[in-house]
Write a structure and sequence with these properties.
The chain is mainly beta. The protein is built from 4 helices and 14 strands.
Length: 206
């Protein structure tokens, strides 16, 4: 099978398969604060680390049908701060609740019955029960190429300024992901739960 982007239905695929092909993807559970003080929490499946030095991350959003972007984008542009909260398997249902389209200013923290915790380097709170969180300052906002008959997406690039890790998930000086089993995004409405880890040593090239 071969096809060009946007023509998947012509070859018998009911849904665009790109997200299923590029998987698993980490979930960026982004908390942000607007100029009015309201706090937002929303998951993004287009999220990843892009640099170790300096430590940087990205997440991106396509506009909703009403031509507006998620509240997170608005908040980050306004206050230039955000937090990436890591989604453990235990927080999966809460994360899913925060993906709902609440009116601006209504708290996803309250809707999902989540506690906030203060951060050290940003004014944005983190999810108190998240196993790890990355405090970020905005570096750049990039408008992505505009597709036909749609509005352009927005990519946010942030620099990590602080890192929180729950002491319970650290073993022998390393983060043990099996201790909290992070969720990953697949295609469609599917998710994966990381329960098994294995190592491979890089070959020595002489």
């Amino acid at each position: 099978m071969y096809f060009r982007p946007g023509t998947h239905k012509e070859v018998g695929l009911s849904f665009n398969p790109i997200k299923a092909i590029i998987s698993p993807r980490p979930i960026g559970w982004i908390s942000s604060r607007g100029e009015d003080g309201s706090v937002n929490l929303a998951p993004y499946s287009y999220f990843n680390a892009i640099s170790e030095q300096p430590p940087m991350v990205i997440f991106s959003s396509a506009p909703h049908s009403n031509s507006s972007h998620k509240d997170s984008i608005r908040n980050v542009i306004e206050t230039k701060e955000f937090v990436v909260n890591i989604v453990s398997s235990a927080l999966g249902n809460a994360m899913n609740i925060t993906s709902g389209n609440l009116p601006y200013g209504e708290s996803e923290f309250a809707a999902a019955n989540l506690e906030m915790a203060d951060c050290k380097t940003v004014s944005v709170p983190r999810v108190a029960t998240s196993p790890a969180a990355l405090e970020c300052k905005l570096w750049k906002v990039v408008e992505l190429p505009k597709p036909d008959n749609a509005n352009a997406g927005i990519m946010v690039i942030g620099t990590i300024t602080g890192i929180y890790i729950d002491d319970k998930i650290i073993k022998d000086g390393k983060v043990d992901v099996t201790a909290f089993q992070p969720l990953a995004r697949l295609g469609y409405m599917d998710y994966a739960q990381i329960t098994k880890v294995f190592s491979m040593k890089r070959p020595d090239v002489k």
